[in-house]
Every structure is written in C-alpha cells, then in structure tokens.
C-alpha cells in the first residue's frame, strides 16, 4: 500500500510538495535543478572532461566505458544534475562513466542535441573499442540515445556493445497531440511541462519529425529498457520496446511495480532503485561478455 509511512509513499509526498506550478519560468526551474546538485557521491570520484564530466568508481574495469545522456526534457539538466544516476551507473557497471554535455532548447532546438551527441560518440569510439562501450540515458536522454545511435549508424560509425534506457521518453508526437493526465503516483512528470518541452525542442517542426520513436532503429545494439508500471510515460516505454523488437533490435524489457519516473536516482533509500541498479549491473556484465569485453 502506498502510504506516507512507506519509502515510496514518503518519496511521492515530498515530490508532490516540491512540484512547480504551471507557468513557472524555465530559468527558475533550471536554477533550482542545478542548485540541488550534491557535491559528492559515495564510491565514486568526479572529474571534469571536455565533453562533460567523468564519474569513476572504486576499482573500475579499465577496458570499459559508459557514455551517459542526462534527462531534463531537452530543456534542462547537465552532467552535474545527473550525478545520482551516473554514480549509480558507475558503481553498477564497475566502469567509468562519461556524462555527456549537449546543447539545450530553446536556445538550441532540434537537431542541436542530437548533433552534439553524435560528435561525442564519434570521439568516444575513436579512442575506445566500440565493443567496450555502453551508451545509456534517462528520460528524454534515453530518447536522445536512440536518435544519436541512429545518427551514428547513418554516419557509418560502429555500434556500441549495448544501450541502457532508463524510464525513456521517446514519443514526442503523442504528447503534443494528447498530453497524458497528471498522476499523484508519478509526481516527477507534469503534463504542462511535457507539452512545453516538446514545443521548445521542436521549434515549429512537426513533433513526429523530431521524435526519436519515429526513427528507423534497425541495426541498433541490444537494449535494456527499464520503466515503472505507475509512470506517467509507461505506455510510451512499452510502445518503444515493441517498436524496437519489430525492427529486429534485441530488447530486455523490465517493467517495475510501483515506482516513479527515473526512480534509480533515489538509491539507496528506495530499495527498488538499488535492485534496479543490480539488474543494470548484471545485464551490462552479460552484454560486455557477449561482445568480447568480458572477464
């Protein structure tokens, strides 16, 4: 039961109290998000990088790298604001994580973010064998992973060993046409924000044209897709899993009960987040082993 006495209930209550109201200025929301960044994450060290920042766990595997794309609805966020996710990735995968920096809308609408991420990926695979690389993303960042990998494929670049998609948001057309209803079960997502983000990102282009879900995704590497059944965007994630399979992509789809959008960020106080990271670690180990970068 979801009550104020359970960890997920307390989390939902706190998120509901902190939700910005409709029409809150984007600049204020950006500043609030950046101000919430923690200086340290246990078990990792953080260092600047020309492409963002590096998150290195204790005793990392030297032959492995995870390239991560942060969420924020294409208009907010940074490598720093993703540290609760990238630190979890680094610990789970026992690998260095490169959290990529990319340009944000509305100052830089589509396709600026995709172009930036293809360029970062090009630099990564120029210095690290592709079979030793995983690419990951959370929320809109997971959608950008798909767009960047499709762009890299079209540019003739080799694919990584696999991709990890955490609570992906990929179908911008459905949001623009019919926004989902707000839900107290997933206070991380508000319909008015989704609509605003799509409008700012597409900058007058048809929403379907800029939507990662509408891309040709054939030839992409194996995917781990995690999302929660109570998430506002759960139908989006489920449809994406089906679309990937229909295009011949190997998909491991994990639908978690009673969690919020990108619940991974709330480890270790949320047990489901810790367990989700355990699953990411096991999947990444298996994927790297099959690609030729195993123990």
Mind explaining what this structure looks like?
With 295 residues, the protein is an alpha/beta fold. The protein is 40% helix and 15% strand. Strands 1-2-4-3-5-6-7-8 form an eight-stranded mixed β-sheet, sandwiched between helices. Helix 3 (83-93) packs across helix 10 and helix 4 crosses helix 5. The model has no long low-confidence stretch (mean pLDDT 95).
* CATH topology label: Rossmann fold
If strands are numbered along the chain, what order do they take across the biggest sheet?
A: 1-2-4-3-5-6-7-8
Poorly predicted runs of 5 or more residues: none
The CATH class is identified as: Alpha Beta
> What is the count of β-strands?
8
Structure classification: alpha/beta
Rounded to an integer in angstroms, the radius of gyration calculated over CA atoms is: 18 Å
Contiguous helical run count: 10
Protein name: Alpha/beta hydrolase
Keywords: Hydrolase
InterPro entries: AB_hydrolase_3, AB_hydrolase_fold, GDXG_lipolytic_enzyme, Lipase_GDXG_HIS_AS, Lipase_GDXG_put_SER_AS
Pfam families: Abhydrolase_3 (PF07859)
In short:
With 295 residues, this protein is an alpha/beta fold. The protein has a single domain (43-291), classed as Rossmann fold (3-Layer(aba) Sandwich).
